[in-house]
Structure formats: structure tokens, C-alpha cells
Amino acid sequence: MSEDKRGLFGSVRMFGIGKKEQPKPEAPKPEAVEVETPLAEPVRQAEYDSVALAEAPVAAESWKDFEIVDEPRGEAVVEEFQAPSEPSAAPVQPSPAAAPEEKPRVGWLQRLKQGLTKTSSKLTEGITGVFTKRKLDDDTLEELEDLLIQSDLGLAVSARVIAALKKARYNSDISPEEVRAILAAEVEKVLGPVAQPLEIDTSKKPYVVLMVGVNGTGKTTTIGKYAKQFTEQGLKVMLAAGDTFRAAAIEQLKVWGERTGAPVVSGAQGADAAGLAFDALTRAKKEGADLLIIDTAGRLQNKTGLMAELEKIIRVIRKVDPEAPHSVLLTLDATTGQNALSQVEIFGKTAGVTGLIMTKLDGTARGGILVAIAAKHGLPVHAIGVGESASDLQAFSAQDFARAIAGVS
Ligand SMILES: Nc1nc2c(ncn2[C@@H]2O[C@H](COP(=O)(O)OP(=O)(O)OP(=O)(O)O)[C@@H](O)[C@H]2O)c(=O)[nH]1
After folding, report:
1. Which of the 8 DSSP states describes residue 195?
2. What residues bind GTP, as annotated (predicted)?
């Protein structure tokens, strides 16, 4: 990787850099290895607690040598993929849930605005309704405050916007455009400190990212998108299919592996996730990977047994690298609204979340929740997703987001 792709301290910042030629895997390509168990029907969340772990022999160089946990597990398999040198015309088949192929797209800012249309129209139409031909007085301010709270911005941010408006224009005429401009400015002030792209410290070999979150929030898809973007920046990326609960997630990750040339370490469905993560980190170290991204099964934050499993994964990988994971990323589905606040709180306590990624901002009128989360928790927001393609995940910009939701061009 050339120096100009690295930030300070040998780190690589996510996004904003042109494409590079795909790195070629150094090792000769091994035989493709079939997934060793037939794929079962997806199991419902309620059944997860009782899902049986696969009975299988334990590898010689096993995480079990460290006597951390006692469940049997399947042996991990590494699949090496050669990234296509040209963008593939044919869509990759295995999983219907895998990421869609890239299509010619409009620019990111345009997509962000399009994606946030539902959130912004709720706010802008409401503001127009409140302020057309009306003075800024106590009644209008109260109506506006209600609107901001209903738009999920949270009490603190809503109060802040109202205070700023009152200070600037109390008892005078004000247009909806002016109200939107003040709203955008205040939201930007709240978001500015948390807008921090994910930085990979390449002095770590590998830099370990653990992806956590509630079911279906976009963990696997986000890993795929990051894998694509970081391999394009010249990093040697490895993926661990630690969502051993959902067979489709393993397949989905392999599709991203094929697309990006990133080897995927996977095990049997139902295998112990901590053991798989251990094996993956051991291999990533041995093979000199720059970045290892570990997928985990989705879990509701109020299921204590499942949350304890996350702690176990972290304990086990620390036997290989005491500093790992270097980042713990929580994916949040914007459509879940207020529940996202409790997800941040509980995953934060259990797994030591270091940064957030909010997905599905394209399908919701509840994108304001990101502002409430920023105000309450102050955790870095690394990226946001406004669609399923790799380029629909971008570094989070406070100004772009604030303007987009306030409908300011
Ligand atoms: N519209 C939209 N869909 C998204 C976005 N990110 C992910 N998805 C879709 O959301 C669905 C769930 O994504 P996954 O990546 O499988 O979620 P997960 O968190 O790994 O799911 P579990 O393994 O069940 O916990 C998939 O259909 C994705 O394509 C986004 O930003 N916008």
C-alpha cells in the first residue's frame, strides 16, 4: 500500500480514496472446500438459546488448549478467494441475502438525500406547517418542539434547537427555510464530534474488528462492504464467519469473500463462535493479514445468555492478542427508532462497543434517532448505510447528514 493511502501513525482511514488494483493472495489457491454440514432451515430467535453445538473433533492447535470454554465445535475452514481483476458481469449466486451487485449510481450526497427523504420530509413538511406566515412565539416553539421529539431527535437536542431559535428570532417573523437552516446548524454541532471514520492501525497485524448487533441490523452486509472498501485501499483483509448460528450468514460472507478476494474462515453451522474467532485470529496472525473482521450472530440485547457469549468471544480472542478486538462495532438499524438507544447502552456495557454504524437510513422516517444517540452516548459514528450495495456505506459526515435531514441544500 502506498504511503498516501495511510493516515497518521500508519493508519488507514475508511473511504475517500480512489480504487487500487486488487492485491493478489500470496499463497497458492487451495482447493475449494465445501461447507461441511448440510444447511439447515434458519432457526427462529426463540430457539437460539437451545441450539445444539456441532459435535466435531477439535483441531490440534486449538483454542481449547487454553481451557477457556468447554463446548465441542466444528473445525474451522479457510476459503481463499481470488478477487476478480475486472468487475464481474455475472452476479455471484450462493446467497439470496448476499449483497446486490453494484449498478451505476448517482453520487453519495444525492443518495444520502434520497435515502433520508422519509426522515427529512417528516421534518420539513412539519416545519412548513408550523411556520408558514407565523411568528416565532411560544405556541409555534411548542409545536416545533413536539415535531422534533416525534422525529426521534430526542429531548436534549430538541430543547437545544428551540433555545437556538428563541435566542435568534423570538417574536419576529421567520420563514420555514430559516428554521430549517438553524435546525441543520444545531444538529451539525451535535454530530460533529462523533463523525469519525473507522481507522485501521496497520501496525497491528492484524487489526481486529468485532461486529456485533441485534438480528438483521446489517452486520454481515456491513462487513462485506468494509471488506470491499479496505481491500480496494490495498489492505490484506480476512473475514471470520462467526455468525455460526445462521447458515445463510456464513454463505453471505463467503460471497463477499469471493468478490473481494478476502479469505473467509468458517466452521459448521452451530459451531462454537468463540473457537471459530480464535482460529481465525490465529490464522490471520500467521498469514500477516492487516485486518480481520469477525462476524457474530445477531442477538437481542435483553437476552443475557447470548450477550454473555459475546463476552466469551472477546475473552477467547484475547488469548491470541491481549489487545484484541481493537474495534467493536455495533450496527444499528435506523428503522428500529428509540430501541436503538437501549441497544447502544447494553451492547456498550457487555461488549465494549467502540463505534457505531447505522444502516437502513434509506427505509425510514426515523433517521433522527442517530442524532439522539450521538447526544446521549457520544460514541463515534463511523459510517452510515443507505442501501444494500457496497457503495451505499459511507463515512459519516455531520454536515451532510444534518443538512439532509433538515432539507437544506
Ligand atoms: N435498505 C437497506 N438494507 C440494508 C442495509 N444494510 C443491510 N441491509 C439489508 O438488511 C438485511 C439484513 O442484513 P444482514 O447483513 O444479513 O444483517 P445481520 O445483522 O448480519 O443479520 P443476522 O445475522 O440475522 O443478525 C439484508 O437484506 C441486507 O441487504 C441498508 O443500509 N439499507
Report:
1. B
2. 213-220, 295-299, 359-362
